[in-house]
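ok here's Alanine racemase, seq below lol
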Amino acid sequence: MPRPISVTISVSALAHNLAVVQRHLEQAAAAARGRGDACKTPSIWAVIKAHGYGHGTAQAARGFANANGLAMLDLAEAVECREAGWTKPILLLEGFFEPADLEILDRYRLTSVVHTREQLDMLAGYRPSRPLNVFVKLNSGMNRLGFAPQAYRDAFARAQALREQGVLGAVGRMTHFANADAPEGVASQLEVFQRTAGDLPGPVSLSNSAATLRYPEIALARPDGESWVRPGICLYGASPFFDTDAATFGLRPAMSLRSQIIAVQHLQPGDAVGYGSLFTADRPLRTGVVACGYADGYPRHAGTGTPIVVAGVRTRVLGRVSMDMLCVDLTPVPDAGIGAPVSLWGADGPSVDEVAQAAGTIGYELLCALAARVPVRSVA
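and the structure came out like this:
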């Protein structure tokens, strides 16, 4: 039989999480209108970069069928979505990289972020079959991509000139928040955006998962305007916050990593477990060996105490995670033996965020690190 490890991707959980975000935005818009503010609910770019955060591009596109658009990095993934039948907008979050890419944007009707002068130069030398839509990105303080505030309005004016020449169609404005998930919040970067680009025309895109969930009011569109949010990790059922779990928002995990017990050991006081002997028993202890290790995408730095579920019972990882195996404490599950089911994270186990926090990282990394050798099954 195959090695007993697999991942299940729930397309219905992806669709559920998108609906949760949509309701959250609709409620924010309704509350604002109740206060007398004229606004409308923003549109949603469902972010499916990094192979759908490890869930698979095709599965993510199916799960997010009701999104207003998809956002990603890779041109090949964008083409895959178009050729699979996605007809709504697709946004390239890092834009294009060389002049030859523009032909692909043109052929497949892709919207691009523009964040450098060189990209504007490339656009100026291209004549598309129909105008290309873009979002001109402002570096409001994250200092990754985008035009500096003092250069932004000139860049935007140049994009508007290309629009008048028929090279560009819609020209939007966007930025990215560095601390929407942290106490610092978005106020300082939002002030830079409003001061620099707030009075310019065109659609706006500001909010990632954290800002969409915590500050939905900043994404609301004027009645005569267009606004987009860009949720990512929350759509997969993980939390962008360290202090608030995904379930608090009604989100469901879309990825479930499962395996089985393949061996049982009986330790005596003083016996150690695994490489480096990082865990030593202080009493008689029954342990299980699970067919999952860091070569499968489970974090090697998840040490003793990391939550795991065996036969429906919550227990803990013991010692150091190996390439192909890890050990668990079977004290809470005395009847569990070889073949007992193990949930490492997901719908019937700990959340991926719990595992990540125990390992000193974030859920994003674990989801994206799923190894190619792990069989994947999609369910409705």
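fwiw The first helix runs from residue 11 to 34. kinda neat tbh
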